Amino acid sequence: MNNNEAIITMILLFLLGLGLVLLVIYLGLKLIDVIYINVFKRPLWVHFYWYKKRLNKKQQQILKEKFTFYNKLSSLNKKRFEHRVIRFVGDKEFIAREGLILDDEKKLLIAATAVMLTFGMRDYLIPIIEKVIVYPDVFYSTINQEDHKGEFNPMLRALVLSWKDFEEGFRIDDDNLNLGIHEITHAIHINSIKRTDTASVIFSDGFYELQQLLLNENVKTRIMESSYFRDYAFTNKFEFLAVVLENFIESPDEFKGQFPLVYKKIRQMFNFRFAGY
Question: Which residue ranges traverse the bilayer (predicted)?
Answer without folding.
Answer: 6-29
